TrEMBL record:
This is Beta-glucosidase. One of its GO terms (biological process) is carbohydrate metabolic process. Keywords: Hydrolase. The keyword Lipoprotein does not apply. The lineage of its organism: Bacteria, Bacillati, Bacillota, Clostridia, Lachnospirales.
Length: 756
């Protein structure tokens, strides 16, 4: 084992500064004099995009032939941690075979808006689901002694002006939504590295934001790896280093290295800060080097099959009016370019040079009765009348039609955001025309984020395939014909139209300022609170079998916030096919005194059941399941009250409910002022004892002789009670008839504060 501290002590100032930036686009620097090796990183997170030394971040030069697994938008839909672990282990093995020490992923940024061009890489609108899925992938990759780089830290939720914009977010929203997705994965799975984002958070660039890179990430969460910049995210190298950014990527040509050296020489930067950064980098370099597996093999064909099995759990059955699964003896028209040449991954830094791709048309080659019509072009959004007519004719002559549609690369990609939530007009026209000719029409969608479906009432079935990797066609065919029972659930809400999205009014922002005015009400948290009709709710996904939920049990009906609550429920497969069900647990706080979502996902599990089989799912809930971030104490707080435990098949399909009373182990300190209203004091019996004599003063309605009918009609009892409830303590001066002064109120406030 290399003694890293000893090694750093032997390095020159210039060598240490040099190690804090890349040698090129993909390698850390070597120090030959001391035998320190270079270390290679590679883009991910759903495949290995290894490029040579001359490669570039955006992938203009070819990367090696590799395997494209489903993107994050799809893998999150699996609600299956084990599936993600297995996928991660395969990616880790590939990295070992190719000499890659760190794969750059997973990406856990919240899907704040359907328009974000990079949503296909991200997991969910829900931070708990995103963190759990990311943690599972990290666990799998790092089980092979290869590192991950969870990204993009922090609040990187749009491509528009992403290198200069400032995400303006209040403290509670940051903690409950945007930090939370990272927090769970970092604390539980300890990624080797964290990648900071380009943008600013409340005015300070992520790369130089000590609050999040050091105080939160390291101080609170215990992160012990190195922080690497997103490629080109460094603005002020010395300030970045002081804030906690260890490694700058890519190479700076020595310019920033010299700035670090000069800052140390001038006394503006403590050399211990530099030493710490170098130690962090070398710890990861040697963690990989000392566990190199020189026998590892990148078996692309075997991993292609793993990609297929993964994709089978990422495809969501959104609608099925008895049309699926298809009969293998039926005449089925496959329509749409994506049946022949599927869109199965997104554009940009995660784009994989796939060693092979299985289309749905290829996968269905052994099934008699399959015909094909191109249907549309995806290079332009213009209806090709000849292709349309051929598609309608093929559908009319078949028993069923399956349209393979979705978003072309020109509609969603890294680098730019979508301007609308629509599919190409030519594809929408195709769907309507085919559905008019063939009542048994199914649409299979290839997209990385929600789309509007103006034709939803015209078709009998919809499969959301997301971007399901290079084996997408085989997975689609298996589900269409019933070889595989669909089990995926939506990790995001599909609104009926873009304008329904809570960020709609503020998304993209003004200039470089992006205000997150919707606060914690992201995705289903907003739609459920508003009781708004949606196209498909969060957590929705159908199956070819049916499941019954029963026998909900809670381990206690009352707990302290230091206790844990165990929740169990029985799930029974009541259908005729084996299947998997993603069981979701939501917590609601109906008694809350703060503005909170209607419910929040706090646990989930996926259970596989044979026909007639019953299994018990168990969940353990801790304080965080009931807590919100309280800005008065800058910490999580579970207030006193009754909480509802909801078990369901989606956020809008709750099957079982139970209740538990939670008591906090410590009260939030209260500080009274002259502006404190009586209503806020009424819950404190000791305070009311002090105030009782004052509330009987004639000016406040106590002991008044004027009880005429006219007076009673002017000021009702309800009005008087409300006026008292909302009056601040300083109001006693005005209504005491001269008996109390402002000095008296100050003394009263001091007496009340001594009660705490």
């Amino acid at each position: 084992m290399v003694n890293v501290k000893e090694l750093v002590s032997q390095m020159t100032l210039e060598e240490k500064a040099g190690l804090c930036s890349g040698a090129d686009f993909w390698h850390t620097k070597a120090v030959e004099r001391l035998g320190i090796p270079a270390s290679m990183v590679s883009d991910g997170p759903h495949g290995l995009r290894k490029q040579d030394t001359e490669g570039d971040h955006l992938g203009i030069n070819d990367s090696i032939k590799a395997v494209c697994f489903p993107a994050g938008c799809g893998t999150a839909a699996s609600f299956n941690r084990k599936l993600l672990q297995d996928m991660g282990a395969a990616l880790g093995q590939e990295c070992q075979a190719e000499g890659v020490s760190v794969i750059l992923g997973p990406a856990v940024n919240i899907k704040r808006s359907p328009l974000c061009g990079r949503n296909f890489e991200y997991y969910s609108e829900d931070p708990y689901l995103a963190g759990e899925m990311a943690g599972a992938l990290i666990h799998g990759i790092q089980s092979q002694n290869v590192g991950t780089s969870i990204k993009h830290f922090l609040a990187n939720n749009q491509e528009h002006r992403r290198m200069s914009s400032s995400s303006q977010i209040d403290e509670r929203t940051l903690r409950e939504i945007y930090l939370a997705a990272f927090e769970g994965a970092v604390k539980k799975e300890k990624p080797w590295t964290v990648m900071c984002s380009y943008n600013r958070i409340n005015g300070t660039y992520a790369a130089e934001n000590k609050t999040y890179l050091t105080d939160v990430l390291r101080g609170e969460w215990g992160f012990d790896g190195y922080v690497v910049s997103d490629w080109g995210a460094v603005n002020r190298r010395v300030e970045d280093l002081e804030a906690g950014l260890d490694l700058e990527m890519p190479a700076s040509g020595g310019m920033n290295d010299r700035l670090i050296v000069k800052a140390v020489q001038d006394g503006r930067l403590k050399e211990e800060v530099l030493d710490t950064a170098v130690e962090r980098i070398l710890n990861i370099v040697y963690r990989y080097e000392e566990h190199r597996d020189n026998t590892a093999v990148f078996d692309r064909d075997a991993d292609h099959e793993k990609a297929r099995r993964t994709a089978e759990e990422t495809i969501v059955l959104l609608k099925n009016d008895g049309v699926l699964p298809l009969d293998k003896t039926a005449k089925v028209a496959y329509i749409g370019k994506y049946a022949r040449a599927p869109r199965y991954q997104g554009g940009g830094s995660s784009h994989i040079n796939s060693h092979k791709v299985t289309s749905a048309l290829e996968a269905a080659a052994g099934i008699p009765g399959i015909t094909f019509a191109e249907g549309f072009r995806d290079d332009i959004d213009q209806t090709d009348e000849k292709l349309l007519a051929e598609a309608v004719e093929a559908a009319r002559n078949a028993d069923a039609a399956v349209i393979f549609a979705g978003l072309p690369d020109s509609f969603e990609s890294e680098g730019f955001d979508r301007s609308h939530m629509r599919m190409p007009d030519c594809q929408n026209e195709l769907v309507s025309a085919v559905a008019a000719a063939q009542p048994n029409t199914v649409v299979v969608l290839h997209n990385g984020s929600p789309v509007e479906m103006p034709w939803i009432g015209e078709v009998k079935g919809v499969l959301e395939a997301y971007l399901s990797g290079q084996a997408v066609g085989a997975a689609e065919t298996d589900i269409l014909f019933g070889n595989v029972n669909p089990s995926a659930k939506l990790p995001e809400t599909f609104p009926r139209k873009l304008e329904d999205n809570p960020s709609y009014l503020y998304y993209l922002g003004e200039g470089d300022v992006v205000e997150y005015r919707e606060g914690v009400f992201v995705g289903y948290r907003y739609y459920d609170k508003k009781k708004m009709d949606v196209l498909f709710p969060f957590g929705h996904g159908l199956s070819y079998t049916s499941f019954a939920y029963s026998n909900l049990k809670l381990s206690a009906d009352s707990i302290r916030d230091t206790d844990t609550l165990t929740v169990t429920a029985d799930i029974t497969n009541t259908g005729s096919r084996a299947g998997k069900e993603a069981v979701q647990l939501y917590v609601s706080a109906p008694d809350s005194s703060v503005i909170r979502p209607e419910q929040e996902l706090r646990a989930f599990d996926k259970v596989e059941l044979q026909p007639g089989e019953t299994k018990t799912v168990a969940f353990t809930l801790e304080k965080r399941a009931f807590a919100y971030w309280d800005t008065r104490i800058h910490d999580w707080y579970a207030e006193t009250g009754n909480y509802e435990i909801r078990i369901g098949a989606s956020s809008r399909d709750i099957r079982l409910t139970g209740a538990v009373h939670v008591s906090p182990s410590a009260a939030i300190p209260v500080h009274y002022t002259p502006d404190t209203i009586f209503g806020d004091l009424m819950s404190n019996p000791k305070a009311m004892e002090i105030l009782k004599p004052m509330m009987s003063m004639p000016g406040l309605g106590g002991g008044s002789e004027d009880s005429s009918e006219t007076a009673s009609s002017a000021i009702s009892g309800e009005m008087h009670a409300a006026m008292m409830r909302y009056m601040p303590l300083r109001g006693l001066v005005s209504f005491s008839g001269g008996q109390l002064s402002f000095e008296d109120i100050e003394k009263l406030v001091e007496k009340l504060n001594r009660l705490n």
